Amino acid sequence: MSPPKNETLDWLRLIRSENVGPITFYKLLERFGTARAALDALPDMAKRGGAKSFKAHPKAEAEREIEGLVKVGGQIVLRTDSDFPPLLSQVEDAPPLLSVLGHSHLLKKRTIAIVGARNASLNGKNFARRIAADLGAAGLLIASGMARGLDAAAHQGAMDSGTVAVLGGGVDVIYPRENEALYQELTERGAIISEVPLGTKPQARHFPRRNRIISGMARGTVVVEASLKSGSLITARMALEQGREVFAVPGAPSDPRASGCNKLLKEGANLTQNAEDVLDVLRPILSSPLSEPKPLNFQQKVPPIPDDTEIEKARTEVQEMLSPAPVTVDELVRNCQFSPAAVSLVLLEMELAGRLERHPGNRVSLI
Length: 367
Fold this sequence. Notes:
Structural class: alpha/beta
CATH class of the largest domain: Alpha Beta
Number of helices: 14
Largest sheet: 9 strands, mixed
Distance between the termini: 36 Å
Order of helices and strands: HHHHEEEHEHEHEHEHEHEHHEHHEE
Strand order of the largest sheet: 1-2-6-5-4-3-7-8-9
Shape: globular
Helix content: 40-55%
CATH topology of the largest domain: Rossmann fold
Number of strands: 12
Number of domains: 3
């Protein structure tokens, strides 16, 4: 069920509000039913969580972002829209919305990610172009991060069949500048997407979030060259956490750029020497129908709020149980006498106040 069109502005304001990440966004929708109702509730919730002040993302700024995106030929695609990447919508912390330049219909295609070193070897880049072209010819969309080196080569190899670049900055920010020609070609023949606001300069903290989108929209991730501490290994780890396949291209032990791939192979990644190695693994998956994610129901009844007495007691006990070490929300509920609804509300209040951090696996910790 898609939200009314006027919900787009409210969704954008909610996800751009301070301390609201994707998981919190969905919990707020579950709690309040609509983004507008959640926005109205944010200041009081943050105050109860310990914040001295809180202001939701201004409507005028959200409107300017939408207008700016339209001016550069882009659009916002909500998680409930038909053009949102189907597999990404099944990820727990999927972005509620994406900014898109280029051909948004490509995002519906079955996808494989190809990532690797920025300081790639000539052989590595040639391999990435070739395997991207072959996998594209087999009907797959190629996703990568538009970084220099392997990412750029993968995009170039798949330009005729379809490729999407996931950016760590805004979709209007070309990074690195040396890929300006590639960026222009992607806007004309492929697609460029990002979850961060228009005009955002890429920062190191954005790239792990960017990587979870690359792996999350793909049925598998191919790592061509990667050092032991590379972002490509982070993408591979995220793919595993999301239940996706990981493919690694073996390399010479003497080449540091092969150390990450060889480590992945030791840990059970699929050895990959050509596109057929990838397709052999994916064919059973590709032949099965894609399961639909649980829809966001905008007509649902708002669940009853626990009474004030329970909430007040829950605030004290839940905060005492938390520490900087992550713990699962289920464990918190099991070890206190309060309802899941009360615990969830207290955690939301603390997060909006900037006192709580969420981690993969439904875990939380104090900041």
